[in-house]
Design brief:
Strand order of the largest sheet: 1-3-2
Structural class: alpha+beta
Low-confidence stretches: 6-11
Largest sheet: 3 strands, antiparallel
Helix content: 40-55%
Shape: flat
Distance between the termini: 29 Å
Strand content: 15-25%
Order of helices and strands: EEEEEHHHH
Mean pLDDT: 90
Number of strands: 5
Number of domains: 2
């Protein structure tokens, strides 16, 4: 898989304050990567079919690498003390809540749902962290 820049052209298309939330790459093994082939899939706004952005289109072998990387990371994660894992998960929850408005706007563009419903979905998702 080929590494890609930390920020890419897709981030500029979203009306969000934190552009780091919008990526076209896949996060695998601690790196943002694109497909080796350079293949992408278009993400269109279902309300008007306008192009929202593109995402990396990984093939089966690249997807297997992603699964392997996640499985490899699990050993180190499970070896951490429970209070360390809890602190990391709490930080993740706090980041989701802090980015709620931006995440909701992204959902609106990608899924065409009302903003109020997207906000509720972000709250619901955060409750699982």
């Amino acid at each position: 898989m080929k590494p890609v820049s930390d920020q890419d052209k897709v981030a500029n298309a979203f009306p969000v304050s934190d552009r780091r939330l919008v990526r076209s790459a896949a996060y695998i093994g601690g790196q943002w990567v694109g497909a080796d082939s350079g293949a992408t899939l278009e993400v269109c706004n279902p309300a008007d079919q306008s192009l929202v952005g593109e995402i990396a289109s990984l093939d089966a072998a690249e997807s297997t690498l992603a699964v392997d990387a996640a499985q490899s990371a699990f050993g180190a994660w499970s070896a951490r003390l429970p209070q360390d894992r809890a602190a990391i998960l709490r930080r993740w929850f706090d980041l989701i809540v802090a980015a709620k408005e931006d995440l909701a706007r992204i959902m609106v563009l990608e899924q065409g749902k009302p903003l109020s419903e997207a906000r509720g979905e972000i709250d619901y998702a955060a409750s699982f962290v």
